[in-house]
TrEMBL record:
PROSITE patterns: 2FE2S_FER_2. Residues 1-76 form the 2Fe-2S ferredoxin-type domain. Residues 932-952 are annotated as: Disordered. Keywords: Molybdenum, Oxidoreductase. Pfam families: Ald_Xan_dh_C, Fer2, Fer2_2, MoCoBD_1, MoCoBD_2. SUPFAM superfamilies: 2Fe-2S ferredoxin-like (SSF54292), CO dehydrogenase ISP C-domain like (SSF47741), CO dehydrogenase molybdoprotein N-domain-like (SSF54665), Molybdenum cofactor-binding domain (SSF56003). InterPro entries: 2Fe-2S-bd, 2Fe-2S-bd_dom_sf, 2Fe-2S_ferredoxin-like_sf, 2Fe-2S_ferredoxin-type, Ald_Oxase/Xan_DH_a/b, Ald_Oxase/Xan_DH_a/b_sf, Ald_Oxase/xanthine_DH-like, AldOxase/xan_DH_MoCoBD1. The keyword Transmembrane helix does not apply. This is Molybdopterin cofactor-binding domain-containing protein.
Length: 952
């Protein structure tokens, strides 16, 4: 049909398909700011204006657009830039994938309700989902943006109050650690290097960059939980105009590999093929359609006829071990580095770790808490779904452009899957719209790569939200049995922890997530004897994978909940109980590879959060009439990278006029790693962050790095940056010394200048750079290299207090306050660290209160969209309160530890304890629904509540 409308102020008359959506029209017409995060009108990412009113472009057909005006972010004008500045100054854009939709809605809010209060803002923007930020930083940016109308000159202050406070706090606390006021950019709210692009909606993500002529890859997926494919009829699919190929298991290499993005030797079993006739969960890939258009590919997928021979499905992890149904009976299954499993028993991994005599310790205890705790499978739910595209270059090599956390591991996976040399594969990572661990598993890349390799044409594979939720990976479901013994005075004597983990259909990360269950929960109470045993089992559901926290989240829920229950049973304050037992600096983390603990202010974090929430002067439970208000606490730890495993390499070159190019293999997935690493380099080189250009990641040119996982970016790669920058400083000094005919020791490097101590010789680095290019010791640029591995993984700590108000009659409860204090060593970027904490806490709150991957009796996932799987909106969470407790980790770059993962661990145990204090019901099965709060966990008899908890 022919329609006329105005697009970003320009009149357009065009023939369009009557059923085309405005979203798809915008994307086809290079308006790449318009993003898709769902197919169910539930995310707000696709928001544009129609006649200045915000609409979800995915729900508007082009027929409706006739006669109207459409504005996208590209045409939003000067107000957009003002709001973008507010966002950038808060670090609120994070991955940026949700930003364009939010910006369109905030500008509309500004027009309608310039005096909007918080409640109005939250309601107006309740449909704008964000998974990174936890909303608090966005709220700060929005408030400041709206406040400009109220300021006399209509200008926005240079920096937010919150940012200034955070900076002052960290600076004050880091005395003697970070550089003083001499231009240092450490412990400051430096704006992310990519902020402007992200907030302008520039085409910087994978699908924005895919060639226009890329073929579309779509998967035919199993409708059965467990079956053998006996026949695949592709004839009708191949007859669809535009279909280029339909590939079946007969067409793909038979190599088995793992999709877990881990360092070689990979720990996960080699149990996967690109396509296979033995399908192991609903959603498993059976065939692959490659077509000229999205429509043709979708049509053809429906026409591939698959015949199955059904097999019994194992859907309950409790019944998996030694079940008569063997999920991986293939002869070519093989072990990765972990060899403790036995596929004939559906066993992926098994082990026992002991420290001390736990049975004796429990026998001598006055009180023993013994309970089962269950943590659900949970979705990472990043806003950018899984996606990649691939092409064969002029040299016949395969290039894969992927939204991934692990480019170098994807290179290995693709080569292994296709059976081609790794030298034939190049992986490029553009901007990534969030990962949270999901993109540490290469669910998607092998398909675009295989299709491009076979067809010789560019091919792209973009998963829908439904595929990303039901056909990729989630947090491993776990059941943990805890026996925790203590003396009457609260001294914990022993902890016996058993975990059963559900790997699902494939063993990605199954062998490794489980280790953190014990390794990151038990060391907090390191003076107690402990045992940690586990089984990881295959079942016929979607595979588990990596998700922020990576097993620690599950273990911390179990152990911290047991500690809370112990306190209640003993009638002790749960904070005092912890202060009595917590690990101290200088002690050994027996359960974490016997690592010595250097920096640790866990107890100070706890004391500070007690102060912040008035813990000591309020009761754990207050009767408000129809409601009960109650508080609960938790304290957790994580690590900083993987000791004796993670590797980071960094190159820094000195370029024309003295700017630096920082080449990294580390993967910024929206957290700001590119900026943080540039800050670290700038600190060593004594220059502005703007003088450091961060370049990553292209596996052909970037130095090897294991990728973005295990909280390794700042700590591990940051350590390599320090080494590389120092190496370059030495070379700069050597260059000047050679020119001046002096010994190296006679030349000093100071903030962009080389000079002699007596000041007789002096040269700016800019001048040196320009001369070195032509007249250096060796012709060419000076460059430094740093390589970093680590024998330790120093833990960050977080203490948090949750406050809930529970309706006495319905059990419906609201999280009314959440305060947390974090010890992550030196904070490198105050804004980005704060947003990491806020975002991680809100993800943890979602896991505690509402999120739950569930299946029906046939193994079909019920929760495969944002309609059923409820991540928190800004209506569901308060602005969480965050503070940092400074410490200095001597093994970290400028004293830094990690922050990315530890922040997700406290909400479940803290909220469970608050609810228990309110209702007397200890909910040990997540999520904590109102029903469980009111009636108790259906699988548990309510534990008795100590009378001492009722009032204090
Ligand atoms: S893509 Fe339109 S609301 Fe999610
Ligand atoms: S910043 Fe909102 S989803 Fe990433």
């Amino acid at each position: 049909m022919k329609i006329s409308f105005t697009l970003n102020g320009r009149p357009v008359t065009e023939d369009v398909p009557a059923d085309q959506t405005l979203f798809s029209y915008c994307r086809e017409h290079a308006l790449k700011s318009v993003k898709c995060g769902c197919e169910t009108s539930s995310c707000g990412l696709c928001t544009v204006w129609m006649d200045d009113e915000p609409v979800l472009s995915c729900s508007v057909l082009m027929a409706r657009v006739d006669g109207h005006s459409v504005t996208t972010l590209e045409g939003a004008g000067a107000a957009r830039e003002e709001f973008a500045r507010c966002m950038a100054e808060e670090g609120a854009e994070q991955c940026g994938f949700c930003s364009p939709g939010l910006e369109m809605d905030v500008l509309a809010l500004d027009r309608k309700y310039p005096d909007a209060d918080d409640e109005t803002i939250r309601r107006f923007l309740s449909g704008n989902l964000c998974r990174c930020s936890g909303y608090a930083s966005q709220m700060r940016a929005i408030r400041r943006f709206l406040a400009r109308h109220k300021s006399p000159d209509g200008r926005i202050s240079a920096r937010s109050e919150a940012a200034a406070q955070a900076e002052a706090q960290v600076k004050a606390a880091s005395k003697g650690v970070t550089a003083e006021d001499r231009g240092s950019t450490l412990s400051r709210p430096v704006v992310k290097k990519d902020a402007e692009s992200l907030l302008a909606g520039r085409p910087v993500y994978t699908d924005d960059l895919a060639p226009e002529n890329a073929l579309v890859v779509k998967l035919v997926r199993s409708g059965q939980a467990h079956a053998l494919v006996t026949k695949i009829d592709t004839a009708r699919a191949l007859s669809v105009p535009g279909v280029v190929a339909v590939y079946t298991p007969d067409d793909v290499p038979s190599n088995r590999f793992t999709l877990a993005g881990q360092s070689f030797l990979e720990c996960s079993p080699y149990d996967t093929r690109i396509l296979e006739t033995h399908v192991r969960y609903v959603g498993d890939e059976v065939a692959m359609v490659v077509a000229e258009t999205e429509e043709a590919a979708s049509e053809a997928v429906k026409l591939v006829k698959v015949t199955y021979e059904k097999l019994p499905a194992v859907l309950d992890m409790e019944k998996a071990l030694d079940n008569a149904t063997v999920i991986h009976n293939e002869a070519d299954w093989s072990y990765g580095a972990d060899r403790t499993g036995d596929p004939a028993r559906n066993l992926v991994a098994h082990d026992v770790h002991e420290h001390g005599d736990v049975d004796a310790a429990l026998a001598e205890a006055d009180v023993v808490i013994e309970s089962d705790y269950h943590t659900q499978a949970a979705e990472q739910a990043m806003m950018e779904t899984m996606r990649s595209y691939a092409y064969v270059d002029a040299f016949g090599r395969l290039t894969v452009v992927a939204s991934t956390q692990v480019p170098f591991h994807i290179r290995r996976q693709v080569a292994n899957a296709l059976g081609i040399p790794k030298s034939q594969v190049r992986v490029i990572k553009p901007r990534v719209g969030g990962g949270f661990g999901a993109k540490q598993t290469g669910c998607n890349e092998v398909f675009s790569a295989f299709a491009a390799w076979k067809t010789g044409r560019p091919c792209k594979c973009v998963y829908t939200r439904m595929e990303t939720m039901s056909c990729s990976n989630s947090r491993h479901e776990m059941r943990m049995h805890v026996r925790l013994g203590a003396k009457k005075d609260g001294t914990i004597t022993g902890i016996d922890l058993y975990a059963l983990s559900n790997a699902g259909a494939y063993g990605y990360h199954g062998t490794t997530t489980i280790g953190l269950v014990g390794a990151k929960s038990l060391p907090l109470y390191n003076r107690a004897a402990s045992r940690f045993a586990y089984d990881v089992v295959y079942t016929n559901i979607m595979p588990g994978g990596a998700y922020r926290g990576y097993g620690a989240t599950q273990g911390c829920f179990a152990v911290e909940s047991a500690v809370n229950e112990l306190a209640d049973k003993l009638g002790m304050d749960p904070c005092e109980l912890r202060l009595k037992n917590l690990v101290k600096p200088g002690e050994t983390l027996w359960q974490l590879g016997e690592e010595p603990l250097r920096s640790c202010r866990a107890d100070d974090c706890l004391k500070r959060v007690m102060q912040l929430t008035g813990w000591s002067r309020r009761p754990l439970r207050e009767d408000l009439g129809d409601k009960v208000r109650a508080i609960g606490v938790a304290l957790t730890m994580q690590g900083s990278g993987i000791s004796n495993c993670d590797i980071a390499n960094v190159d820094i070159t000195l370029e024309d006029d003295g700017f630096y190019v920082l080449k990294i293999g580390a993967t910024d997935v929206g957290t700001g790693a590119d900026t943080i690493l540039a800050q670290i380099a700038a600190e060593v080189l004594g220059c502005d962050v703007d003088h450091v250009v961060t370049k990553g990641v292209d596996t052909d040119t970037s130095p090897f790095d294991t990728g973005a996982y295990a909280s390794s970016g700042t700590y591990t790669t940051g350590g390599a940056v320090v080494k590389a920058a120092r190496d370059l400083v030495e070379k700069i000094r050597a260059q000047a010394a050679a020119w001046w005919d002096l010994p190296l020791d006679a030349v000093e490097f100071d903030s962009g200048t080389v000079c002699t101590a007596d000041g007789k010789q002096r040269m700016s680095v800019a001048e040196l750079a320009n001369r070195a290019i032509g007249f250096g010791l060796q012709p060419g640029m000076l460059s430094g290299h740093g390589s970093n591995t680590q024998p330790q993984s120093p833990p960050p700590f977080i203490a948090a207090v949750a406050e809930v108000e529970v309706d006495k009659f319905t059990g419906k409860y609201e999280l009314t306050d959440y305060a947390a204090v974090v010890d992550c060593g030196t904070v490198i970027n105050t804004n980005l660290a704060r947003v990491q904490v806020e975002g991680g806490l809100v993800q943890g709150i979602g896991m505690a209160m509402s999120e739950d991957v569930s299946y029906d009796a046939r193994g079909r996932m019920r929760t495969d969209s944002f309609m059923q799987y409820k991540i928190p909106t800004r209506m569901d969470v308060p602005d969480v309160r965050v503070e940092f407790m400074p410490s200095y980790e001597p093994t970290g770059p400028f004293g830094a530890k990690s922050i990315g993962e530890v922040v997700i661990n406290t909400p479940s145990p803290a909220i469970a304890s608050a609810v228990a204090h309110a209702t007397g019901n200890y909910v040990r099965t997540l999520p904590i629904t109102p029903e469980k709060a009111l009636h108790g966990d259906p699988t548990e008899a309510p534990a008795p509540m100590s009378p001492s908890q009722a009032a204090k």
